[in-house]
């Protein structure tokens, strides 16, 4: 991974540039639309029609524009049917006619148009049929004659007029009444706060007694349950309780006259003027809005926010954070511990523990189970780096040997799994272009076996260029389709072998690299942006000839600038400060890397909605940097 050891790969690139050849036009497959089901990401598409077709096979799905997160299509329900204030997923509809047809089959039901208050249709009933103390949802009726007809064939039935809370009919025969009295005085009437003193053999007697009082209840003393109440059933709230009504029409008339009101019955909200979509932040309600898109527009202004329906369905959130990964560039346990201790918000650490040694698949293993345990205790996942020593001849020999690949893959994956690692980072560099297909096949097989051991696989790919990537060992699109994460090594724009001075990673060059990787059709959440924590200092003699260059850690730059009394000027080409000083007849130049440039690079990852960043490397940076970039996750 060390960027100044990429001579072979860059030499290949230079050879390719020197040879004239024509490239076929490359189709831009950049994903522009993301399909969600509720708040969960399903898939990304470059074509809107394909995205809509895919999304339409899921309930509560939508298509978002990735850049703006604006909704371009959704199939959220427009209408919901509630029975006594309760709804189910199967009672959600796009059209009103379908909603009403379903509601007509359910007594005590109503249809709500979700972007408006109240109901657009209801069939709340006046007469409730009981068998003894029990009733059913479908035993509600709008007229007494229909209720009586439904009672035919049943015994011990009675009907309550819910508008007046009175017992209006029953089919209890004298013989049944005589039998019921043998069960004892099981019913007790309590009026207001006065303990019950009146006891009754028959439910009918208790109910008729209680119905003459405005605040009485009937309790089955054997079971300790309330079986009847003369209290008005409909309660109007405006934040807090306001008033009770026996008649639903009266309750509706009153509730409509005050803002922010709702009607409750038996603990359920059956009618409300409150908006259906709620914006929550950190679990607390911030405000409500009439439509989902309106709610999301407002929710974007709040961090850690969600949009939740009144029925508790989460539709959207902005909880996704960038994944922060860091390479160690070393296998030393103490150095790894030191590196990680300097960070804040680090999610994945990648120590350089494994190397391909020869064409037979022999493995160098410098792993440390103790380090894995230590990092996991800090909440940091360990995805060790596996490299090929950046040796082209060795790699060619290895990729020509299927048995060597199988041995190598199983040895690496099994070892990482056994010590508690949760992933692996493949960093095969400086390979021959002729190994392109063989390398893709190796990665495909490697990922397949790693997944059987529950390991994620990331791969490091050079920033490169659309002009020559097709002629290298890296089939970017094919590799991305196999792995879990692709890390863009968006550095070494100007490297050790360059013939002129320049930035390690100009901001515009880095952004163009992101666009190029997206143009292969890679999923944004899979992409990790590789960020340099170093610069390259160039020495130029008095004639303008480039003499030498060397890498300098970011943490060493402030002291160097002060010691050399260096001068900084803004470079609009690289969008970085160009730093210069003179010494012993030579001019020294580097392009500044500091908290400003690092934050600008992270902002690119956020702007293009990438999965995260990976930094080369830990230990090169000042510790204060992490407290700043933590806030950008």
Supply the helix-strand structural class.
Answer: alpha+beta
Give me the side-by-side strand order of the main sheet: 28-27-30-31-32-33-34-40-25-26-29
Runs in which pLDDT lies below 50 for 5 or more consecutive residues are 2-25
How confident overall, as mean pLDDT?
92
Gross morphology? elongated
**What is the share of helical residues?**
25-40%
Total helix count? 18
Strand content: 25-35%
* Strand element count: 40
Rg over CA atoms, rounded to whole Å, is: 36 Å
Termini separation (Å)? 24 Å
* Biggest beta sheet attributes: 11 strands, mixed
Notes on the protein architecture:
It is a single chain. The protein has 633 residues and is α+β, with helices and mostly antiparallel strands. Helix content is 28%, strand content 31%. β9 and β10 (140-141) form a beta hairpin.
Short description:
By secondary structure, the chain is of the alpha+beta class. The chain has 18 helices and 40 strands.
Features:
633 residues; 5-stranded antiparallel beta sheet; alpha+beta; 11-stranded mixed beta sheet; disordered N terminus; 28% helix
Helix and strand arrangement:
Blueprint: H1 7-18, E1 33-37, E2 40-45, H2 48-55, E3 61-65, E4 71-74, E5 79-83, E6 92-93, H3 96-103, E7 109-113, E8 121-122, E9 127-131, E10 140-141, H4 144-151, E11 157-161, E12 166-170, H5 174-181, E13 187-191, E14 194-200, H6 203-210, E15 216-220, E16 225-229, E17 234-238, E18 240-245, H7 248-255, E19 262-265, E20 268-272, E21 277-281, E22 284-289, H8 292-299, E23 305-309, E24 314-317, E25 323-327, H9 333-341, E26 348-350, E27 352-356, E28 363-365, H10 369-377, E29 381-382, E30 385-387, H11 392-399, H12 402-418, E31 423-427, H13 436-452, E32 456-462, H14 476-482, E33 485-489, H15 507-519, E34 527-532, E35 534-540, E36 546-553, H16 557-564, E37 567-571, E38 576-583, E39 586-591, H17 595-607, E40 612-616, H18 624-630
Parallel strand pairs: 25-26, 25-40, 26-29, 27-30, 30-31, 31-32, 32-33, 33-34, 34-40
Antiparallel strand pairs: 1-2, 1-3, 3-4, 5-6, 5-7, 7-8, 9-10, 9-11, 11-12, 13-14, 13-15, 15-16, 17-18, 17-19, 19-20, 21-22, 21-23, 23-24, 27-28, 35-36, 35-39, 37-38, 38-39
Helix pairs in contact: 12-13, 15-17
């Amino acid at each position: 991974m060390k960027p100044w050891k990429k001579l072979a790969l860059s030499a290949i690139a230079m050879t390719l540039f020197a040879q004239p050849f024509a490239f076929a036009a490359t189709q831009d497959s950049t994903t522009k639309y993301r399909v969600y089901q509720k708040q969960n990401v399903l898939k990304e598409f470059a074509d809107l029609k394909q995205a809509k077709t895919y999304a339409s096979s899921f309930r509560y799905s939508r298509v978002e524009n990735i850049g703006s997160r604006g909704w371009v299509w959704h199939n959220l329900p427009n209408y919901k049917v509630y029975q006594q204030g309760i709804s189910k997923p199967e009672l959600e509809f796009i059209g009103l006619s379908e909603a009403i047809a379903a509601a007509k089959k359910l007594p005590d039901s109503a249809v709500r148009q979700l972007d408006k208050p109240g109901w657009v249709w209801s069939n709340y009933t006046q007469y409730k049929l009981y068998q003894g103390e029990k009733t059913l949802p479908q035993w509600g009726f709008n007229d007494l004659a229909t209720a009586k007809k439904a009672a035919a064939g049943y015994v011990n039935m009675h009907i309550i007029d819910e508008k007046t809370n009175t017992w209006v009919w029953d089919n209890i025969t004298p013989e049944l009444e005589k039998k019921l009295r043998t069960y004892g005085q099981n019913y007790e009437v309590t009026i207001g706060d006065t303990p019950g003193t009146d006891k009754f053999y028959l439910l009918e007697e208790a109910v008729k007694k209680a119905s003459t009082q405005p605040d009485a209840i009937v309790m089955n003393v054997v079971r300790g349950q309330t079986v009847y109440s003369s209290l008005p059933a409909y309660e109007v709230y405006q934040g807090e309780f306001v008033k009770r009504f026996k008649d639903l029409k009266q309750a509706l008339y009153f509730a409509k006259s005050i803002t922010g009101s709702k009607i409750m019955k038996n603990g359920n909200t059956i009618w409300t003027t409150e908006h259906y979509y709620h914006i929550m932040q950190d679990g607390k309600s911030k405000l409500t809005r009439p439509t989902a898109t309106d709610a999301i527009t407002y929710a974007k202004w709040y961090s850690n926010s969600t949009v939740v329906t009144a029925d508790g369905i989460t539709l959207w959130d902005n909880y996704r954070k960038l994944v922060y990964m860091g390479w160690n560039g070393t296998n030393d346990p103490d150095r790894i511990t030191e590196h990680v201790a300097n960070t804040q918000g680090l999610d994945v650490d990648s120590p350089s523990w494994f190397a391909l040694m020869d064409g037979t698949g022999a493995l160098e293993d410098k792993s440390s189970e103790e380090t894995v345990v230590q990092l996991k205790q800090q909440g940091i996942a360990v995805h060790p780096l596996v490299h090929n020593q950046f040796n082209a001849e060795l790699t060619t020999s290895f990729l020509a040997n299927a048995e060597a690949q199988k041995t190598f893959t199983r040895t690496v994956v099994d070892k990482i799994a056994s010590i508690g690692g949760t992933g692996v980072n493949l960093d095969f560099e400086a390979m021959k272009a002729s190994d392109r297909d063989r390398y893709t096949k190796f990665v495909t097989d490697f990922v397949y076996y790693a997944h059987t051991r529950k390991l994620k696989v990331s791969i490091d790919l050079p920033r490169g260029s659309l002009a020559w990537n097709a002629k290298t060992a890296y089939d970017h699109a094919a590799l991305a389709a196999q792995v879990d994460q692709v890390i863009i090594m968006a550095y070494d724009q100007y490297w050790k072998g360059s013939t002129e001075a320049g930035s390690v990673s100009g901001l515009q060059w880095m952004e163009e690299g992101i666009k190029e990787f997206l143009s292969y059709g890679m999923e944004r959440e899979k992409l990790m942006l590789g960020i340099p924590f170093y610069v390259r200092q160039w020495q130029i003699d008095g004639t303008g000839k480039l003499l030498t260059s060397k890498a300098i850690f970011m943490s060493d730059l402030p002291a160097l600038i002060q010691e050399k009394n260096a001068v900084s000027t803004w470079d609009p080409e690289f969008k970085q400060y160009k730093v210069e000083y003179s010494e012993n007849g030579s001019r020294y130049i580097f392009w500044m890397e500091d908290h400003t440039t690092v934050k600008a690079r992270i902002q690119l990852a956020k702007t293009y909605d990438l999965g995260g960043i990976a930094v080369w490397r830990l230990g090169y940076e000042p510790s204060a940097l992490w407290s700043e970039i933590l806030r950008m996750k």
